[in-house]
């Protein structure tokens, strides 16, 4: 009997410690997950959803301004959760996920405003895509070149990665934004349905091939050096899954909230006497702000290759996916779509592309390249406001 009692006490004393360690870890994990649930990236999407469901967008200018702030917060939250998922899968898939999520937001905003109608509905996709390309090539790349040049004098990257992205970008830009001015099937600078389908498929083929090159055949061209400032430990499976759910929620909230706020956005632009093309610049700036900050942070860490992947990958995704998606919507709902740029815009676009090509043809950077690109950006924004 004493032997049985001794054995029971021995088992309890040895089993108590593992169980106590297990429950301590479980309690710590639960408290950390509970704390993460109250992160701003979880709170603002829920507030944005409640704002939309309550239908208070038309009550007053103050409520409309609150809706605009919640829309921006939802966009920032979406990009944050995309970054968490991207960190889980690693490079170069991380930058691809981030670029595609940015494009989904852009498409959602464009389609929502187009479906709501308005004077600039037919030209809104063109203005937004053009603004996104100009902001990426001149703004994001220019800021990264300037910040990296000031801090490190010179930064190095793989020339092949920049050349591959620029080849695809130039081809899609010419086919979708310049060629419509010179086709004769339509009176306006736009494609008919058969042309729209053909060039949308062409854009998808080019972008799909670029993704294959970036992720499979020449993946090493797009990998950062990775010797300094290695990334933090990847998030857990639970954290990644929660971020994925909130990412889907954010994308839906942004689309529906943008549609409900579209009249207020147009009224604000008209009240300042600004041209309607400024709406496209505003959409592109809101959507690209988080990605721009991420690219600049990478340049400050002397990881210009990551900045380049983010910038050029986003530019390719913006035009290579946005135009086909918008084309499908326009064909299904029989909406007008004007894609051809005016002469002034084509000159600025050509200047930007040529400057970027010259800036990236040596595989290393300096301050001058960044300053020139930022001057190009200010010239573009100024000519939009004062045409």
Brief account:
This protein is an all-alpha fold and 387 residues long. The protein has helices spanning 2-37, 40-54, 61-89, 93-115, 124-152, 159-178, 193-217, 237-271, 278-300, 304-333, 343-359, 367-385. The protein is built from twelve helices and no strands.
The CATH topology is: A middle domain of Talin 1
Would you list the SSEs in sequence order as H and E?
HHHHHHHHHHHH
Dominant shape: globular
The number of domains is 1
* Biggest sheet character: none
Q: Can you tell me the CATH superfamily?
A: NCX, central ion-binding region
What is the C-alpha radius of gyration, as a whole number of Å?
A: 25 Å
Q: What fraction of the residues are assigned to beta strands by DSSP?
A: under 5%
Which structural class do you get from the secondary structure elements?
Answer: mainly alpha
Number of helices: 12
Write down the CATH class: Mainly Alpha
Overall pLDDT metric = 81
> Which architecture name does CATH use?
Up-down Bundle
Based on DSSP secondary structure assignment, what is the total number of beta strands?
0
Helix content: over 70%
Low-confidence stretches: 21-30, 227-231
How far apart the termini lie comes to: 98 Å
Descriptive overview:
There is one protein chain. Helix 5 (124-152) runs parallel beside helix 11 (343-359), helix 6 packs parallel to helix 10 (304-333) and helix 7 (193-217) runs antiparallel to helix 10. This protein has a single domain, classed as NCX, central ion-binding region (A middle domain of Talin 1). 78% of the residues lie in helices and 0% in strands. The protein has 387 residues and is mostly helical. The termini are far apart. 44% of the residues are buried.
């Amino acid at each position: 009997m004493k032997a049985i009692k001794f054995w029971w006490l021995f088992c309890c004393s040895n089993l108590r410690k593992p169980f106590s360690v297990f429950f301590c870890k479980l309690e710590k994990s639960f408290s950390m997950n509970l704390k993460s649930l109250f992160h701003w990236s979880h709170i603002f999407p829920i507030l944005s959803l409640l704002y939309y469901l309550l239908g208070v967008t038309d009550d007053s200018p103050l409520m409309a301004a609150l809706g605009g702030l919640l829309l921006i917060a939802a966009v920032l939250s979406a990009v944050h959760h995309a970054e968490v998922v991207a960190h889980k899968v690693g490079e170069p898939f991380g930058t691809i996920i981030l670029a595609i999520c940015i494009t989904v937001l852009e498409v959602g905003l464009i389609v929502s405003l187009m479906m709501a109608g308005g004077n600039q509905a037919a030209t809104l996709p063109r203005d937004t895509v053009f603004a996104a390309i100009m902001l990426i090539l001149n703004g994001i790349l220019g800021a990264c070149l300037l910040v990296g040049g000031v801090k490190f004098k010179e930064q190095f990257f793989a020339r092949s990665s920049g050349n591959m992205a620029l080849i695809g970008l130039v081809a899609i830009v010419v086919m979708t934004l310049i060629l419509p001015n010179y086709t004769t099937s339509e009176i306006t600078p736009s494609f008919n349905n058969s042309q729209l389908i053909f060039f949308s498929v062409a854009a998808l083929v080019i972008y799909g091939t670029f993704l294959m090159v970036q992720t499979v055949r020449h993946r090493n061209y797009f990998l950062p050096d990775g010797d300094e400032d290695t990334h933090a430990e990847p998030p857990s499976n639970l954290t990644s899954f929660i971020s994925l759910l909130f990412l889907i929620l954010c994308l839906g909230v942004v689309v529906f909230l943008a549609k409900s706020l579209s009249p207020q956005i147009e009224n604000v632009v008209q009240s300042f006497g600004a041209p309607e093309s400024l709406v496209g610049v505003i959409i592109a700036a809101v959507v690209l702000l988080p990605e721009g900050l991420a690219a600049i942070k990478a340049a400050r860490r002397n990881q210009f290759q990551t900045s380049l992947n983010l910038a050029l990958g986003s530019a390719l995704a913006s035009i290579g996916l946005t135009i086909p998606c918008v084309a499908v919507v326009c064909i299904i709902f029989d909406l007008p779509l004007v894609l051809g740029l005016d002469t002034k815009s084509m000159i600025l676009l050509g200047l930007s592309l040529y400057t970027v090509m010259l800036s990236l043809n040596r595989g290393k950077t300096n301050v001058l390249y960044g300053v020139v690109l930022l001057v190009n950006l200010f010239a573009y924004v100024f000519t939009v406001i004062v045409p």
